[in-house]
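Q: Structure tokens for this one, please.
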Amino acid sequence: MKAITEPDRTRSGLVFDAALAIGLAIFGVVGTYFASAQQQPLRRPFEAGAAALVVIAALALIARRRNPVAVLAVVFGTTLLYFLIGYRDGPIWFPLIVAYSTAAVRGHRVAAAIVGVSGFLLF
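A: Here is the predicted structure, written as tokens:
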């Protein structure tokens, strides 16, 4: 039986993270498109800007194991910008949940706490 070496584990982790990011990007864009069809008259409709922010937030997750705090910052900033612009509610939350969980589990609890409190106050 062949032992799993560190590069194999790293490669498989990167493949998983890339698949997760791409899946969330697709789900996010499609979900945001359909969520924008709901009656949310005070919010901006779905457009390329909303799709771009959803994709940026999701694709940042590719680096979540190597740089969990930086990824959390990018995803939080992107999500915050999405809501400050006023786009309609949709599945933009999923990348933020993954980035937050990754940072907390990997031991970056102060960064996770700052984002958690900031998110509670801002969103």
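A few notes: The longest helix spans residues 6-35. The helical segments are 6-35, 48-59, 68-85, 93-105, 109-122.
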